[in-house]
Amino acid sequence: MFSLSQLWYAPRWYHWCVIILLLPLSLLFMLLASGRRQAFKLGFKKSNKVNAFVIIVGNISVGGNGKTPLVVYLAQLLTEQGYKPGVLTRGYGGKSVDYPVLVDENSQAAVVGDEPLLMRQHIFCPIVIDPIRSQGAAYLVKQCHCDVIICDDGLQHYALQRDIEIVVMDGQRRLGNHLLLPAGPLREGKWRLNTVDFIVTNGEHVENGEYAMGLQPGNLINVKNPNRHCGICDITEPVTALAGIGNPQRFFSLLATYQLNIKQQLSFVDHHAFKASDLPTGTVLMTEKDAVKCRDFAHDDCWYLPVKATLAETFNRALLAKLQLLKANKTD
């Protein structure tokens, strides 16, 4: 057996038989996606504009590329610069009866999803969940008085007009086999990268014109009691590494750099709804995204490793200059 991840990112010669069989479906996907883009471009489908600058943070491939840390970074940066940002997201893994939903400290992952809860722990600007992005954006402007909207994972949501597009690229996996879904990991072709304003590369293999983003780990924080902290280098006993994110191997590789005694690695699908039986006994290390779903039943020896995005000042200057230009043009 093999996984789609193997087909997309590390295909061996015998995988190409399956990839070739999937190519007709990729062609169909391309035609449907192209037709949808043209429908918005020609006005057959409505694209809504709100009275705020819209920054899209997305990607052209599926899977975890590091969008959430960048969204947090942008919200903090814009707040420091005097803007009133708001975050708009789909809230994958959550399901609400009504939308939009404003995320607060009492929100549950089953309702709003795991990533919004993670963001709530780091930023204090409004965070709104709405699968209809234009509706959620309007709420952020009218009810929360936001002047900049950071739309998480909205690159292909053309029903919401945008002012700045940022693509987040996984520096290790890049574009995989460069094919569209389902034969490859791409939602849109490589050509789309030439139309965006910024490409932010998470990790190694940064190419010309891209901005490097690093993920800086902090101290371990106890899932059950967040007031307990521990240096990761202070862990000497065998540990279980656990991750239910888009690319679990990235988390496991990060832990490996600390020379930990990892007795097992447990991978779960992205946005997995954890339950107590998923957590083994002994010391467990997990991502912060997973921890927000485990805090109600985690045992005393469950810890998560927070990370924060780091980018060069050149990115900050370029982004803020772009916003200033947009403001000047709007005034004129």
From TrEMBL:
Gene: lpxK
Pathway note: Glycolipid biosynthesis; lipid IV(A) biosynthesis; lipid IV(A) from (3R)-3-hydroxytetradecanoyl-[acyl-carrier-protein] and UDP-N-acetyl-alpha-D-glucosamine: step 6/6
Keyword check for Protease: no
Function: Transfers the gamma-phosphate of ATP to the 4'-position of a tetraacyldisaccharide 1-phosphate intermediate (termed DS-1-P) to form tetraacyldisaccharide 1,4'-bis-phosphate (lipid IVA).
Record-stated family: Belongs to the LpxK family.
Organism: Paraglaciecola hydrolytica
GO terms of molecular function: ATP binding; lipid-A 4'-kinase activity
Keyword Lipid metabolism in annotation: yes
Top-level taxon of the source organism: Bacteria
Listed InterPro entries: LpxK, P-loop_NTPase
Enzyme class: transferase
GO biological process: lipid A biosynthetic process; lipopolysaccharide core region biosynthetic process
Transmembrane segments: 13-33
GO terms for cellular component: plasma membrane
Sites where the protein binds ATP: S61, V62, G63, G64, N65, G66, K67, T68
Catalytic activity entry: a lipid A disaccharide + ATP = a lipid IVA + ADP + H(+)
EC number(s) from the headed UniProt entry: 2.7.1.130
Keywords, ordered alphabetically: ATP-binding, Kinase, Lipid A biosynthesis, Lipid biosynthesis, Lipid metabolism, Membrane, Nucleotide-binding, Transferase, Transmembrane, Transmembrane helix
Protein's name according to its UniProt entry: Tetraacyldisaccharide 4'-kinase
